[in-house]
């Protein structure tokens, strides 16, 4: 049996741009992508903390150390610059792999700098 588990998470990133006239996707600062192990073209789920929207798209590599979090195409209708989002990537693994897998979670500040890397989330933790 395969389980779909959280692999990577960018927690509370700030949307820097919404570009309706682009083909589609989310552009993420390359350094942030590397820190959490997200690859270009990887499917991610976006959760908008401001309006509750949840949607999926794929990742485009953005300029390194720019802090870029830009929603492109139709997804741009679901966010506004300044919104706080959570970006989650998942991976399929066996139950045995899942028992020992450690996700990479980046806690962001309002300038999209990583302030903490964690490998688990405690119940009811406010970050």
UniProtKB/TrEMBL annotation:
Pfam family, one: Asp_decarbox
Gene3D superfamilies reported for this sequence: 2.40.40.20
Cofactor details (free text): Binds 1 pyruvoyl group covalently per subunit.
Keyword Zinc attributed: no
GO MF, one example: aspartate 1-decarboxylase activity
Cofactor(s) essential for the protein: pyruvate
Subunit composition and interactions: Heterooctamer of four alpha and four beta subunits.
Protein name per Swiss-Prot or TrEMBL: Aspartate 1-decarboxylase
Organism of this sequence: Tepidibacillus fermentans
Organism ancestry: Bacteria, Bacillati, Bacillota, Bacilli, Bacillales
């Amino acid at each position: 049996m395969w389980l779909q588990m959280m692999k990577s998470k960018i927690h509370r990133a700030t949307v820097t741009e919404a570009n309706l006239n682009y083909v589609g996707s989310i552009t993420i600062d390359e350094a942030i992508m590397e820190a959490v192990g997200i690859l270009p073209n990887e499917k991610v789920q976006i959760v908008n903390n401001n309006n509750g929207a949840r949607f999926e798209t794929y990742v485009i590599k953005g300029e390194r150390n720019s802090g870029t979090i830009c929603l492109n195409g139709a997804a741009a209708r679901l966010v506004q610059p300044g919104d706080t989002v959570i970006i989650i990537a998942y991976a399929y693994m066996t139950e045995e792999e899942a028992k020992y897998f450690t996700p990479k979670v980046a806690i962001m500040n309002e300038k999209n700098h990583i302030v903490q890397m964690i490998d688990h989330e405690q119940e009811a933790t406010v970050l």
